[in-house]
Amino acid sequence: MRKFFNSSAVCVPERHYMVDITKKLEQIKEMVDQGQYFTINRARQYGKTTTLRSLRSFLRDDYFVISMDFQSFGSAKFRNENVFSLAFAKVFLRLWRQESDDAASVKRAGAATMALEQAVVRQDPYFELQELFENLSDICQTAEKGIVLIIDEVDSAANHQVFLDFLAQLRFYYIERDQLTTFQSVILASVYDIKNLKRKFISDEEHKLNSPWNIAADFLVNMSFSSDEIAGMLMEYEADHQTGMDVQQMAKEIYAYTSGYPFLVSRICKLLDERVAGIERFTDRSAIWTKEGLSEAVKLLITEKNALFESLVNKLTDDSTLRSLVYTVLFDGKQIPYNSLNEQIEIAHMFGFIKNAEGAIAISNRIFETVLYDLFLGEEALDSGIYSSALSEKNQFVQNGRLDMRKILERFVLHFHELYGKQQEQFYEEDGRRYFLLYLKPIINGTGNYYIEAQTRDMRRTDVIVDYRGEQFVIELKIWRGDEYNARGEAQLAEYLDYYHLKKGYMISFNFNQKKRTGVNEVVLGDKTLVEAVV
After folding, report:
1. Rama region for 519: left / alpha / beta (φ>0; ψ in -120 to 50; rest)
2. Domain 22-215 - what CATH class?
3. Cα–chain center distance at 116
4. What ranges do the domains of the chain cover?
5. Which ranges in 222-278 belong to alpha helices (H)?
6. Which tens digits make up the pLDDT trace of 35-86?
7. pLDDT by residue (tens digit) across 419-437?
8. 323-332 contacts: CB < 8 A, separation 24 or more?
9. Most buried among 114, 116, 419, 519, using CB within 10 Å?
């Protein structure tokens, strides 16, 4: 059967084009060899389940691996200790029989296994967590290899007190492991960091201040895909399809958009392979696997409705403080220090919205940034004068299929001055970038896309990169701070154009000087032409 790119559920090496995660598995196995207990907590669709599936096979030569999923339990199984303990024992026994299918293993752990089976068969009403763990300890003691317990979808149990008590038992046996035999390693997989379950649990009297999972080791394995790892997957695809793509360059471009977020990498590749292939101007695979084809795939991605984007939106809807933090990072251009002790910053990181970029908060990747910009801008668009102005004139900005960026700047200056010319300086500083994006959105919507260049984004300067039918435009947005500062900005933009192999760049300066002269003019620096707009 022909392999394909998979962006839903678990990836299987025999069926899907996949990144080789062997080095990541080796790092995780090292933690298991050391007997560590830990949580693999990453945002939605970050490849946790696929990693656990691969890890199970990777560990089997050295360990018995019991891998279960709490999502299959159902909330009724967590209503009290007895029900949960019997349910856990039943699932454990089924997996244990599969894992220890060798006769010697069964015989060696037979008595301990039988004791657990009897409790399940009798539905012993007095069988609770203490009895469960005593039996599990006996099985671990008699097993000829160490037992690794893996539990996926732990979030589905996180609102149940019995789960907290289950963690307490794991903690007790971990601490007493020199006296009581227990699991070689326990791995929990979740979105939430289980070490911080104090936020999730509330008793009748008070918040629980500590989670029993505070014995867990930090999980520092980088689960995002590097450019080289993406290239490895593309090489396998290229060997099958002979597209003639520049594999290394294509991998770098995909990484630049996704920062290696597993779902986004797989989804873009799937769109290139299956959807871009159906677009008229991409007549063969050699045209698809190019920078222009990638731009088309990105456009398809950021406009689709998928489970990951829906999850992001739902989190913002449910948490107004999180929404405010993300909005500030997007539009205000403020450098917010990354502080893992700040609860809102930690939550934003846990859900995948932000990353630590050299000590400052940044949106995790270009795709998320564009999706979030579109979300916020879309909410403002219907009531925005600047958006309506662009919408009413959008047809004049495209001539013979090409975007006329100079005309966009000219009309933006005019409309901005008409609508906001009497506002105060603080208004411009905070909102200038937003208003340009609102103006740009209806013009390129459906045909082009844009993103914010993270390397140049700060309080004084932001570069917007626009892709329109294979043509790129770099527009620098900045606050006017005098002629000398502006001259430095021109030189920086001219240098930056080299990176994109462009001869022309664009600047928009928001000038607070009452004696300013608004308008658009051109400046030539060496072999570069800069089109400057002052508003």
Report:
1. left
2. alpha beta
3. 41
4. 22-215, 227-304, 388-534
5. 227-241, 247-258, 262-274
6. 999 999 999 999 999 999 999 999 999 999 999 999 999 899 999 999 999 9
7. 877 665 555 555 777 889 9
8. 325/361, 326/353, 326/354, 326/363, 326/372, 327/376, 329/354, 329/361, 329/362, 329/363, 330/363, 330/369, 330/372, 330/373, 330/376, 331/376, 331/430, 331/431, 331/433, 331/434, 332/430
9. 116
